[in-house]
Amino acid sequence: MNDKKLQEIEQKAYENGLFVSKLSKTDAETAVRKIYAVFKNQGFDYIIINDPAMFHFNGDRLRFAELIVDAGELEQGNKYERRLSPYEYDFLRGYVEYGKYALAHQSDGVRPKNGPSVVINPEQTKAYQRLCRLVIGQEEMKHTLYKLAAVYQFARKREEYSLLSPPIHKVLAFVGPPGTAKTTAALFFAEMMAEEGILGGSRIAYVTGTQLKAKYVGQTSDRVHQIFEENDIIIIDEAYSLVNYNETERTDNFSQEALAQLCMEVEDHSDDKLIIFAGYGGKINEKNNKMKKFLSENPGIASRITFMVHFSPYTAEEMLDIFESLANQATFRLEKGWEEIMLPFFQERVKDENFGNGREARRFLENAMAITAEKFAKWAATAEFSGTYAREKEERQRLSMLTCDDLREALTEFQKEHNFA
């Protein structure tokens, strides 16, 4: 394989890792440097990580194929997992797994051109396995995505044997309360479709409704058209932000132009691209059911949506699991008895119509970290030690533990800050 082709595959793998991990581009670049430093058994040398002159695209990153072989199946406890942060490791998984697939099907980057396609069980795709591992609960959603991946693969297989059937549009709506992993699931499903070779490519565009609008009237339609032309998977979050539901005001010209072009693109590309609309809807308070209002006012888009994927609000017990998972990802240990402190709080919160689901677990963890950080600063200012080893041992313990007292104080602060008390 020539360097240009390998560079193209590596760049797409990089973009896939970026979407999977949610890292910023700056953090992703650092992650890549760390990954290749581990690959070369050079540790995290300051020069390797921080000096751009030591890290050229035609150097380390053109060893991408070798990295994939070295990473293998990324078994638990491998050298990369030990040296990278949880988010950097998620980046690595997305980076390597896309690369494995693309290199195995390098004739066109998706699947072999000659002969029938290989049927892949959706449950066996790396993306589905990662979805089930990283997203807590949401069993109905997971089963729906499994069925959808099977449906689209079934339809493609029928086409290969010239069996006539009505087209199954690849336009979906992901609806549910806030904080229920709609966007995350959309990205995983896009990866599932790419792994199965159902799409013509794997280029992903993730935009919000407001991002569809350009700076000047007349430019928005071109912006929307370009997004659809340049990508194979288009995820549109909060598309309802284009619509003004205030009866006393009209939807602005930018939004009208975006909606008009969006209807045209969905009409033209419902078969050859995967289009996902994500937003608040489903089993939530009617006044907050923005997706329902959006689709009822845009029949051109609504008529093309083939399947609705529903997300459920989390239970109090699932919120405990989410909080524990987030704490573990941040390399914190929770003191025994933490569940008894958090469960009553979540039992009350899940009853509130403004409950933020997973987002509240993340925000609470940030509050708890702030409490712990303040205590650490006060302790460090007066602490005395018999030696370096004793100091490092105690510091590590305090830096990695969230105590029950920390959680109680954070709970009080959290309730005051968000007016839950």
Can you put this structure into words, describing what you see?
- The protein has 421 residues and is α/β, with parallel strands linked by helices.
- It has three domains: 3-104, no CATH class; 122-310, 3-Layer(aba) Sandwich (Rossmann fold), CATH 3.40.50.300; 316-417, Helicase, Ruva Protein, domain 3.
- It has 18 helices and seven strands.
- A five-stranded parallel sheet has the order 2-3-4-1-5, with helices on one face. Strands 6-7 form a two-stranded parallel ribbon.
- α7 packs antiparallel against α9, α14 (316-329) packs across α15 (338-349) and α14 (316-329) packs across α16.
- The longest helix is centred in the C-terminal third of the chain and has 25 residues, at 358-382.
- It is globular.
- It starts with a helix and ends with a helix.
- Mean pLDDT is 82; it is low at 44-58 and 107-114.
